[in-house]
Write a structure and sequence with these properties.
heterodimer; A: 236 residues; six-stranded mixed β-sheet; four-stranded antiparallel β-sheet; 38% helix; globular; B: 293 residues; mainly alpha
Chain lengths: 236, 293
């Protein structure tokens, strides 16, 4: 059963068209990677899904057309976007960030249980629950961003460069936790990631973008080590 | 000693006016991240609205309630149709827009009701009490108590309710808040609406004392901004304490420091601001805005 389907999606910032007919299909519980060089349109594809950029084409989620919806409406349908950079609310505490993540949910006990789950998933956050997010380290902020997205209990997680700017060991910790999250919750994911090893550790299939178009799609096993992948990553 | 206590009591009374306006400014800032210079002007407009309904023969409390409710919608509409166009851009632009709005609203009030001082009836009795040798007017006392109650309610709203959390989240980062499903536009309207409501309450509380004119709150706005900087933009309690302190201090200094006297007492809060900005830029009660890059 397909959860998310993009067909011929275009997107532009003002007059500049950044993606030009991207297609993508995410099965329920599946994890799909978007690979490509800088400027290939990876982030913009995620933005097209979450409604933060003007788009054309067709985007269906859970059988309904979501193109043109506002970001909060998209979120309400069960799509949580962890944007590139720090997806946290800096002046709010770690706990408050998690509560904002659960804004649309009801059921105090379930929410509180999920806060505990997040702190178990990211033990580094345990001692910092009362600290403001802006005072956390980069790695801790990334963990909080992922945890906050999970608090919405989404059907689909959009993950944009979760390793950006992190030390390799921290990036690995973050990805280990995300893999565990996927295993235990079954949330479907669309993963944009520059680090190929991290990406392939998390996704079943992937598509490679070049100047806003799909040039290659396949399973992780097929794509690993292919020349096109290396070229896409090196931008040549 | 009697004079001293009287000065303190009078200072607290004027301080409560500054506090009321300062609370509205803090509310908008907490809910939208902006400083609304038009807050005073909008509060004056609300007072005129109450005045109109009093003139129509409605009981004062009913007229005030109508004005308070209408003010919520005025605040929300101002956000929706004016401020929203500038929210995404440079915050400085939005601030200048609110200064323009202040001029506009003051002008509208002047066109509709003229510049003559209009008497506004007091919600509280005009009697006074003798406390420790000082004459305390019941009106000032009741105004102060009302302000303190509002302050506590605001603090609870922001720190203990889901709406308060959502308002703070949107003020912190609207784009990021939307990713958690927060209806950003509606929350910004609510924030402005609540602030206008608070401004309306402030306006009708002080209008009997100051008498109603389009520029009724211009001076108070300056003191309120001083209180906000002194107390910290993020702290309702801080700005009320600071506003009271400013009220008391300017009275005491005027009498006990002959060099300053009544002519220079307006300089007192500004000297305080300079000192505070140098020593503790986040305000006495405010939280430091930290950003790690």
């Amino acid at each position: 059963m397909t959860l998310l389907e993009l067909a011929g999606v275009t997107a532009s910032y003002g007059p500049v068209q950044v993606i030009d007919g991207v297609s993508l299909s995410v099965p329920e519980g599946g994890s799909v990677g978007i690979l490509g060089a800088n400027g290939a349109g990876k982030t913009t594809t995620l933005r097209a899904i979450s409604g933060t950029v003007r788009t054309g084409g067709r985007i269906t989620f859970d059988g309904r057309d979501i193109r043109g919806l506002r970001p909060d409406q998209v979120a309400a349908l069960g799509i949580a976007h962890v944007p590139e950079g720090r997806g946290t609310l800096g002046q709010l505490s770690v706990r408050e960030n998690l509560m904002v993540g659960a804004y649309l949910r009801k059921g105090r006990q379930a929410i509180s249980a999920d806060v505990d789950y997040c702190l178990d998933l990211f033990p580094q956050l345990q001692d910092r629950v009362g600290s403001r997010a802006a005072a956390l380290s980069g790695g801790e902020q990334q963990m909080l961003a992922v945890a906050r997205a999970f608090m919405a209990k989404p059907k689909l997680l959009l993950l944009d460069e979760a390793s950006l700017g992190l030390a390799p060991s921290t990036a690995k910790t973050v990805y280990d936790a995300i893999r565990r999250l996927r295993r235990e919750s079954g949330i479907a994911m669309v993963v944009v990631e520059q680090n190929a090893n991290l990406a392939f550790s998390l996704v079943d299939t992937a598509t490679v973008l070049e100047t806003g178009r799909n040039v290659l799609t396949g399973t992780s096993a097929e794509l690993k080590g292919m020349d096109e992948i290396r070229r896409a990553y090196l931008g040549g | 000693m009697g004079t001293f206590i009287q000065l303190v009591v009078d200072g607290l009374s004027t301080g409560s006016i500054y506090a009321a306006l300062a609370l509205a400014i803090v509310l908008v800032n907490q809910a939208t991240g902006l400083i609304n210079f038009a807050q005073g002007g909008m509060a004056v407009l609300s007072s005129y609205i109450a005045y109109v309904f009093v003139q129509l023969g409605l009981p004062l409390i009913v007229a005030i309630l109508i004005a308070v409710v209408l003010s919520f919608f005025i605040g929300a509409l101002v956000e929706r149709f004016l401020v929203r166009r500038f929210e995404r851009g440079d915050p400085d632009t939005a601030v200048v827009v609110t200064i323009g709005l202040l001029t506009l609203v003051t002008g509208i009030c002047a066109v509709l009701w003229g510049y003559n001082n209009l008497g506004f009836p007091s919600l509280f009795p005009l009697t006074s009490l003798q406390i420790l040798g000082a004459v305390v007017s019941v009106r000032s006392l009741a105004t102060t108590v009302t302000i303190v109650v509002i302050m506590v309610v605001l603090q609870l709203l922001f720190l203990r309710t889901k709406l308060g959390l959502a308002l703070r989240a949107v003020a912190d980062n609207p784009g990021s808040a939307a990713f958690s499903g927060l209806p950003v536009g509606r929350l910004l309207m609510v924030g402005w609406g609540l602030a206008a409501t608070l401004g309306a309450i402030a306006g009708v509380l002080v209008a009997p004392q100051l008498t109603l004119t389009p520029g009724m709150l211009d001076t108070a706005l300056v003191y309120a901004l001083a209180a906000v900087i002194l107390g910290g933009l993020s702290s309702p309690i801080g700005c009320v304490v600071a506003a009271s302190a400013i009220g008391v201090l300017e009275n005491l200094v005027a009498v006990y420091v002959p060099f300053i006297g009544h002519d220079l007492k307006i300089a007192v809060p500004f000297v305080l601001i300079f000192v505070i900005l140098i020593v503790r830029p986040q305000g006495l009660f405010g939280r430091k805005v930290v950003v790690r890059v």
